[in-house]
Prior knowledge:
The protein is an alpha/beta fold. The protein has helices at 61-78, 146-160, 188-198, 218-227, 242-251, 271-276, 279-290, and strands at residues 11-15, 47-51, 83-86, 94-98, 104-106, 109-111, 115-126, 129-140, 207-208, 234-236, 261-263, 266-269, 297-299. Helices cover 27% and strands 21% of the residues.
Amino acid sequence: MIPDPCPPQQDVRPIDMALQAAQPGDPPGYGHRLATSPQGPPTLPRWCVWLEPAQAATADRWEQRWLSAVDAALTTWQQVLPIIRVQEPERAQIRIERRRPPLRQLANGWRASNGRSLLEVLAVRRDGSWSLEPRVTVLVSPELRASVLRSTALHELGHAFGLWGHSDDPGDVMAVHQGHLPVLRLTARDRETLRWLQAQPTETVVWDAKAELEMSSSQFLAKLMSSSKPKKSSKVASVKDAAHLDEMLLRSSFQRTVPQIFIGDEHIGGCRELLALSRADVSSKVTEAEGSPSDGVHFE
């Protein structure tokens, strides 16, 4: 049986993960202007895309114009990316909606936009396996002339496919301010930047329910115990059953390296993050944890 390339989601959990400035370097194109995440760029090797259909069985004139423009934009990106169009939104990582973006408040007033892309990072279970996925809601206003509508969709889809930033060249699709004529084709810089982005490592943290997560942390625990005052209780867990794996992955924002360290209910991170804390910081956090019902410092 051929596996479903876009299986429906069985469960979804939000992950608190914000984009951050690009790492220093000299990437090609406008890669240095793109934001990323602690897990790497929010990209996927294959994208499942849902396009809002017409309200009735037959699209009216304005719906057809919107659908044709967005379809043309998708076809342009399909030349350089594997994109699968789906009929159900729960199968998609990208959902394109036909509506005007709400006004956005800036320091000097309110701003209207022709389009907007809204990124969420989610833990999603599909076919029994959990993974981190970007989910992007793309809003494209229908109240635009055809060429601007297509250009807007092309630009916003670029964000959705991982180009979270803007080019400084007005001729590029991802320019923050385009020239007098709408840009309807990918430029060489757009393609070069996208190729570089797709080659960057991204952690999706795929987990199969049959897998086992083992750890050997006694030496690390001894180091921690000697670095601050004795703890009321501590725990080193070897997580083997699905229920505890599920809990650990969700509580640690789907970090799969071991150990994952908690002081009280606060997730510290791994060994590197703990060692970055001063002894005073660790002692302070432990003191706070001892006043809570949690069972102190534990590793999961």
